[in-house]
C-alpha cells in the first residue's frame, strides 16, 4: 500500500463570529479576511510539509478549491509545478484541476504534461467533479457539470495521447480547432488517472475506464457500495478484473507518540468538517441539479410535512426512492461530528503508530482492501510542527508496515 | 394535436417529435401563454378570469412542469424554434403572444422572428435584454442569491404568496425542482438575456403592451420601461402592489389590463 499526504492549505484565521454570521464560508466570504502575509506563511509551511513527505517516502497530493477558508489552492497547476521541481522521488497526485469548470481542457492537458515532464514521470492525474460553491466561483452551469466532466476527460486524454500532429475537437461543451500540446507527457501512454467519487453511477464509469477510484471521507458503507458498482460495471462490460491497486481511500490521519496525543491533536483535523463545509443553500440544497427532482421533497423542506398534511394526500415522502447521498448531503451529515464518531465511521485514523496502523487495517478489512491511503494530515488550527511530527512518525513507523501489503484481488 | 394525459395533470400537445403538457382554457381569441421561472399553476385564478375573454394555450416548456425534455434540447434557441413550430401548427392565422418573466424573453425573440403570425404581444416582467453597464446586473441572479433574498425580491407580499416547501405536496416540490433545473440549463449563460436581442426589437411591428409589477425586485420597472422603449409603439404599464408575478399577486388587475389591451385593438 502507498500513502499520499494531503493538505488543502486551509486559511482558518478568520474570526469565528465572522464565520458564524456568514451564510457560507466558501465562495462568498470577502477576501479581505485573507491576509496575504499569513497566506504566504501557510504556503511555505505546506510546501515544506510536502518536501518532508518526499524525504519519508510518502507521496503527495495537490488539490484545488476556490474562494473559501477550506483551501488556498485555487490553482492546482501552480502547486504541481512547484512540487514537480522541488520533490525528488514522491509521486505527485493532482486531485485535481477542476476540469468541468475550466473553459479549455486542452490547456489543462498541457499543464499536466508539463508537470509530468518536469517531474520526469511522477505525476498522477486525478479528476474531481467539483462542489456547489465552485459553480458560483467558476461561473459554471451546475446542471451540465457531469456532461462537461466526462467530455473534458475525453479531450484531455486524447490531447495527452495524440502525437501525430494537430487534431480537431467539436464536442457538445468544448470545441478546439487545433490540439497539439507540447511537451507531450513523460509517461506513456499517459499518467495514471484517478477519479474521486462516492456516487455509484459515476464510480461505474470510473470502473469502465479503469481509473483509480478514490473515496474521500465516505466511511465504509458508501465506499463498499461505490467499489461494488465499479467492479460490477467492469464485469458487465466484459473488462478484466482489477486489483486493490485501483482503489484509494482518503481520511484524516494523525500519528502521535501516544494514542492519547494522536487522538487529541488529530481532533483538530475535524475543523475541516465542522467549520469549513458551511455552504449557503443556493450552493447546496437549492443548487440546480444537485439532486434529481424526485428527491427534492426531502431536500427542500426544512421540516417534515405535518402529519395532517401528509395524511391528506396519503403520500408524504415515504414512497420516494432512497438514493445515495449526493456530495453536499454527505457534507451536511459530517458537520458537527465529534472525534469518537469520526473514528468510529472510518473518517479519522488517529493515535500512536500501532493504533493508527490497526485502525487503517480494520477499515481495509471492512471495505475489502485498497492500495492507496490518502492521508489528510493537516487542517484547521493544527500547527506546522504538529503536522511535521505526524509525517515523520507515520513515515518511520506506519508506512513500512503498509508498504508490505501487496495489491490483492478484490473480486 | 392534443389529447388528455393519463395522469390527470392536463392535456398533451404534440409538436413535431415532442410532447408538451398544456393547459387549455376558455374561448375567444387565442392567447399563447409562455410561462416564467415556474410553469403555470392550473389553479391560478388569473387563468379562469382571462379564459372568460380568450382561449388560453399555456404549455409547460420542455423540462418544466410535467413536460419531458429530450436530450440535447437545452438552449433558448431550441425553445424559440419549438414555439415557432407550435405557432405554425396551431389552427389560427394570428394569435396573441403573452410571455411572463423568462417566457417574456422567449416571446420577444419569437415576435422579432414571426410578427406575421402574431396579433398582439404582451410582455410581463420580462427578461431577455441587457440595459445597464457591465458591472450593473439588470436581472437578479436567482441561482447566486440566498433563497430568502430571492423570496423578498420576487413578491410584493411574500408572506402571502411565496411558496412554502414545508407545506407543499411532494409532486409540487418535484415540479418546482424540475423547473429550477430546466431554467438553469436554458438561461445560465448569458444569464437571462441575449446580448443581440435589443438590436432586433425594432422588428416587432405588432401592438405591444409591457406590464410590470411595481414592486418587482427581480427585474425592476425601470428595466421594463427601457425594454418597452425599444419596441416600436409599445406601451408600458405598472401594476401596483405586485412583484415579479403580477398575474398571481394581482390577478384581477392583471386580467383587467390584458383584456383592455385586447379590446383596444379589436375595434
Give your account of this protein's structure.
With 411 residues, chain A is α/β, with parallel strands linked by helices. Chain A has a single domain, classed as Luciferase-like domain (TIM Barrel, Alpha-Beta Barrel). Helices cover 42% and strands 14% of the residues of chain A. Chain A contains 16 helices and eleven strands. Chain A has an eight-stranded parallel beta barrel, surrounded by seven helices. In chain A, strands 5-6 form a two-stranded antiparallel sheet. In chain A, α8 (219-236) links the parallel β8 and β9. The longest helix of chain A has 20 residues, at 36-55. Chain A is globular and about 60 Å long. In chain A, 51% of the residues are buried. With 267 residues, chain B is of the alpha/beta class. Chain B has one domain: 3-Layer(aba) Sandwich (Rossmann fold), CATH 3.40.50. In chain B, 35% of the residues lie in helices and 19% in strands. Chain B is built from ten helices and nine strands. Chain B has helices at 45-51, 76-89, 102-113, 147-154, 158-161, 170-187, 197-200, 221-229, 246-249, 251-264; strands spanning 2-4, 11-15, 18-25, 29-34, 54-59, 95-100, 118-124, 208-213, 235-239. In chain B, strands 1-2-3-5-4-6-7-8-9 form a nine-stranded mixed sheet, sandwiched between helices. In chain B, β8 (208-213), α8 (221-229) and β9 form a beta-alpha-beta unit. At the A-B interface, α11 of A face α6 of B.
Topology:
The complex is a heterodimer of chains A (about 400) and B (about 270).
Chain A: E1 2-7, H1 16-21, H2 36-55, E2 59-62, H3 76-86, E3 92-95, H4 105-118, E4 123-128, H5 132-137, H6 145-161, E5 167-170, E6 175-179, E7 193-196, H7 200-208, E8 212-216, H8 219-236, E9 247-255, H9 259-266, H10 271-274, H11 296-300, H12 307-313, H13 327-334, H14 339-344, E10 348-351, H15 353-367, E11 372-378, H16 384-403
Helix pairs in contact in A: 2-16, 3-4, 4-6, 7-8, 15-16
Chain B: E1 2-4, E2 11-15, E3 18-25, E4 29-34, H1 45-51, E5 54-59, H2 76-89, E6 95-100, H3 102-113, E7 118-124, H4 147-154, H5 158-161, H6 170-187, H7 197-200, E8 208-213, H8 221-229, E9 235-239, H9 246-249, H10 251-264
Parallel strand pairs in B: 4-5, 4-6, 6-7, 7-8, 8-9
Antiparallel strand pairs in B: 1-2, 2-3, 3-5
Helix pairs in contact in B: 1-10, 2-3
